[in-house]
Amino acid sequence: MGNNSVILFLVFFLVTFSGCSVIGDIFEAGVWVGVLAVIGIIALIIWLVGRGSK
After folding, report:
1. What parts of the sequence cross the membrane (predicted)?
2. Could you tell me what percent of the chain has a pLDDT over 90?
């Protein structure tokens, strides 16, 4: 009985969640985190250069 419930759960998981969709969402979130990190680093560099020139 325990083995059947595991198989049923796996089938349910595979049917409800498309593999490509899940991986696409993960990469999309990663892209936005990367974009925000780059913007933050550029802002920090501009702030440091502006502070150093005074």
Report:
1. 31-50
2. 17
